[in-house]
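In this supplementary section we document a worked example of the pipeline. Step one takes a protein sequence of length 247 as its only input; no multiple sequence alignment statistics are reported here. Step two produces a three-dimensional model, which step three serialises into structure tokens for compact storage. The input and output of this example are shown verbatim.
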Amino acid sequence: MNLPHGGASSCEPAVKIKRSASQELRPPSSSPELHVNWLGRIGFLEALAQQEAIVALKRADRSHPDALLLLEHDPVYTIGRTPDQSSLRGISHLPHPLFPINRGGQATYHGPGQLVGYLILDLRRHGQDLHRYLRWLEQLIIDLLAQYEVESTRRTGLTGVWVESGQSSSGRKIASIGVGVRHWISMHGFALNVGGDLSPFEQIVPCGIANVGMTSMEKELGRPLSLIDVAADFEKLIIRRLPELRK
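The serialised model returned by step three reads:
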């Protein structure tokens, strides 16, 4: 068992949501154990409020289903609650709003073209081990990228997913992971760069890792992708693989 009240991250970001038919992932594949919702493009604070509402329901009733919110954000920077904010390089130069949030880790950027997944899980039902949960999330993203013929990997000591292998902190990072956990209920999750403008990352030290280059699926493949198609593929993958956490 590890860290029941804390957070962990390489940087990232931490109620049954009503939606219109046009918002649903197609084909819908939510299981009774995991309610998956496609929120489309949404402001950061609105998504945070929806996460917190689900957490409150789960704290009041342990039988309330786990949830995954899939979305893309309006441009925003976030940083974990840490005294060290050197990854921001100051604040006045940032071109988009900044929000400190209840996850571990340093600064990151979210914006259009990036698939964000917020997982609200009762980890007491899924192994009750935060580090194992983080490695499981990394592997899900690695396997998703493999479906698109993008070869990716982990790096020892650096949470997230990378396109290049090796142990140095330089290279191309394609996905960030950051979670917050209280009373063994998780918040926040992952941010996978499908496409979009990566230049806002240049205004910070992404995840506090010097000399890191950010990349995206579109950049690696040299062709455009549909964010909602990638989200639908991730939805199918996570529903199939969720039982692994209980082993």
